């Protein structure tokens, strides 16, 4: 009886269509386990015959730098494969499209979203169906099923700052203070409450002492943000200047200037455009859009015209106005006396 094998690729589905498109990269470091058709572990090749009874370690491997894996030296039959993704990923839609060689075969576990299990598949003793002849002289297998793969979607996030626009130029300048306690809500592109990667509605957050907010563990896509400011503040002019990372992105509600909503923005599944690679290991996101900030101004506050007036200057101005008023009143009295 000829020996057979199974192997394919775990790949990053950047456009979330469930199809392995040209240019989508492989994902290294994914644990892959070989199971029988009843989801029991297939023991490692060094296991004794008695290892088939009771608890045994599954035959497992990890994907290489190109995302590929391979199990060699198997008997023809029916099998399943279980994948374990690194943190910061979820599985794409399984069995999308009509081409079974480029779809994803892993259905996510309902309890642990990092686990994904393929359906039962066959590795035949001849080239038939999805089994093909193996031309690799390094392997023991004469036939291989090269179609059992998994598409992974990186988790993303959005984070930026609410800042006080002291000079009201619509740009976050060096030294301008940040604002804590601002309510921030994440919306989908249609203005509805957004959901996270596991389908849960995302609740509001408030900016911290550093003025920052963070929404984590999202799927790549298009979103909006709504900000609600404390009493006495409104939003500065949006999209000023040429640096999109330092402008304000919020348009104030004309009916309630303390509330404002951003335009639609994208968070990509790669470092692209306004999306950057996330280096903070405490977040669940692999990529984050750091550019969606909000500048605020105090309501009724006059824009600065140079240096701030000192108390002495204000007092001198007041006395000058009072003196001028006294002179005007005195002149009117003298004119009235002369007229009589």
Radius of gyration: 32 Å
Helix content: under 10%
> What is the total tally of β strands?
24
Uncertain stretches:
46-57, 305-322, 324-332
Number of helices: 1
β-strand amount: 25-35%
General form: elongated
What oligomeric state is this? single chain
Order of helices and strands: EEEEEEEEEEEEEEEEEEEEEEEEH
* Cα separation of the termini: 134 Å
Overall average pLDDT:
87
What's the main sheet like? 6 strands, mixed
Give the structural class. mainly beta
Descriptive report:
The strands form four sheets. Strands 1, 4, 6, 10, 11 and 12 form a six-stranded mixed sheet that branches. Strands 2, 3, 5, 7, 8 and 9 form a six-stranded antiparallel sheet that branches. The chain has one helix at 311-339; strands spanning 4-12, 31-36, 59-62, 68-74, 77-84, 89-91, 107-108, 115-117, 121-123, 132-133, 143-145, 150-154, 156-164, 183-188, 205-206, 212-218, 221-228, 233-235, 250-253, 256-262, 265-267, 275-277, 287-289, 294-298. By secondary structure, it is mostly beta strands. The chain has one helix and 24 strands.
